[in-house]
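During the no-cost extension, the postdoctoral fellow (Dr. R.K.) reprocessed legacy sequence entries with the updated structure-token encoder. One reprocessed record is reproduced below for audit purposes.
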Amino acid sequence: MDDKLMLMIPGPTPVPEQVLLAMAKHPIGHRSGDFSKVIAEVTEGLKWLHQTQNDLLILASSGTGAMEAGIINFLSSGDRVLVGTNGKFGDRWAQVCEAYSLNVTRISAEWGKPLDPEEFRTQLEADTDKQIKAVIVTHSETSAGVLNDVETINRHVKAHGALIMVDAVTSLGATTVPIDEWGLDVVASGSQKGYMLPPGLGFVAVSPKAWEAYPHANLPRFYLDLGKYRKEAAKNSHPFTPPVNMFFGLQVALKMMQKEGLENIFARHQRQMNATRAAMRALNLPLLAPDYAASPAITSVAPVGVEAEQIRSVMRKQFDIALAGGQDHLKGKIFRVGHLGFVSDRDILTALGALEATLQKLNYDFTPGAGVSAAAKVLTA
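Re-encoded structure tokens follow.
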């Protein structure tokens, strides 16, 4: 059946109809007074979501562009940085740093395991001459479904004095990221995740401390020069041509989120994560990440006795439900169930019911109904 695709991946995520309808409106001039009002409104809404009064800058980019901008605007060639790597995206930020000739020290953990804050503390305390200029951490490591302890890591960074830069691409809108309370310096995210929008917008929150480093940073930049964005944002404008209709969608999405409320949004993601994980246990499908470090955005499953790619194939072909696969060395070994953004409890039960039917088709040995029942207990508690 056409037009019934159900996205249960970590991005792009489902987009509400009212957001799509807003984006279908005729564009307006991006230098007009009317569009300045839109920029002012969405900027205020984004600050609410990010729990910050710091500068909140909007880029026409993916989350990767937002992170690269965060890195290159406040550092100089040869600067030493610590980068947490326990998945594909932590690895990517290390590669971006190396591309700009930064001196990278990786603090690594096995994919599926969280980063150890004590390793950051050890490195930072040993740096008595303050050569470490920044610590770069992925909050929700999408490739493995792990939530890293940014709050604790940040305490060690603050004691040292370096900047902390956070990839919050799949955590913002799924779990609390209290930027001002924690004192985070650079936080990047992207529209196609918890914001309930298509890909196309990147967001960067920047602290006053990070701006102090900006005049001395010497890495090359032009389109991603955040100084330009800050100057124009003060006038409710944009330094380049923004995707106007994405702003229309963002306007509506933020209103929907504000109506639901931050605590309710976070509780919904937590509930759906718990339900999904309970279902996988009931189906004897091993989870990659431990409970204490599970991401509320996505659940990674490492099946035994049935192939991950066969599960994904049947789910897509027979039920029009898209699950994510593994990346790099986990390709073919895991599947990932997204529960991020515009996802309801009903969607979780629908996907799990289809998963059980898929497992039956693939002759996997399990108790029919066990997964749906386990999830329903969590969702209706």
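The chain has a mean pLDDT of 98. The CA atoms of residues 32 and 291 lie 49 Å apart. The remaining legacy entries will be reprocessed before the final report is submitted.
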